[in-house]
Amino acid sequence: MDNLLLQKRTWALPIRALWLALACLFVLSLTTAGALALGEFGIPLPVLLEALMRDDGSDAAFVIRELRMPRLLTGMLAGGALGLAGAIVQSITRNPLGEPGLLGVTSGAAFAMALCMTYFTLPTPTMLLLSTVGGITAALLTLSISLGARLNPLYLTLTGMSVNLFFAAAIIVLLICANVEANGIYYWLTGSLINRTWEHVHLLWPWVIPALLLGIIFAGKLDLLRLDDEVLVALGMRVTPWRLLFGVVAVLLAAATVAATGPITFIGLVAPHLVRFTLGANGVRHRHLLPLSALVGASLVCAADLIAKWHEVPVGILCVLLGGPVLVYLISRQEG
What we know:
Layout: H1 2-37, H2 45-53, H3 59-92, H4 105-119, H5 124-147, H6 153-177, H7 183-189, H8 198-217, H9 219-224, H10 229-234, H11 239-261, H12 267-279, H13 286-308, H14 315-335
Helix pairs in contact: 1-3, 1-13, 2-3, 3-8, 3-11, 3-12, 3-13, 4-5, 4-6, 4-11, 5-6, 5-11, 8-11, 8-13, 12-13, 12-14, 13-14
């Protein structure tokens, strides 16, 4: 009887994971069709399919290939990167409320971009690069300070919060002191996918795809990092280098995403919790958690952007409006 129950539980997790993956792919298919076809320039489905297969030089092909497709792919990659980074940060900090911003990367990248937009006139690729460097610098500051405590999860969390608050305050000071029209900067700081181009897509995919593969390959190490440090040391595991490696991966993902889209909050926090809630909080392995968190994050951002497209509301605001109640619901269900 016990063996039968154990076998049933063993098969239940992959089946639930498969259903969740299929649900996400269904949502992504619907949002892809909606994002490419709907808008001020409506495109019928047959014309949409023909324009996707070949570029005939028509207005519909231009709108799909040069305007809507880059925005859609940027949203998918950004959501996937945030979901993946959130799952990693929650694991290495052992903090269920962990997200990429907890390492200071979000505010650091936002500060660098706000600085570029305020005082310099630079080409888009250069601004994206400098914003990524800003996020990496802030995160390295957090990690270097925390190295003194061997990247202890509690110390890492508190240090990241302090660095995050420092750069958030620096952004406010920068905007107050700058004698420029700040509406555009405020709009970017809310997180948006409007006017995204292939440059943004090419910035993101070289980070997201290798990070996802790296996470899946070393998922077993993340499973072990859930244990106490004393136990891991006793098992012979080098805790600090592995925690540092995964921290750097999460930082690169989040920094590139903030540079491309601005700060989109709640996705990195909510996506891993949705996966755990669906699969069962206990026993979820990272080989399932990481790819599914990326898939859920991509689905959430694309669905939110499709809704936000109606009135061109920044997708970052919509993610907060929808993500907050979802998180409260998940917490109440787990408490119950």
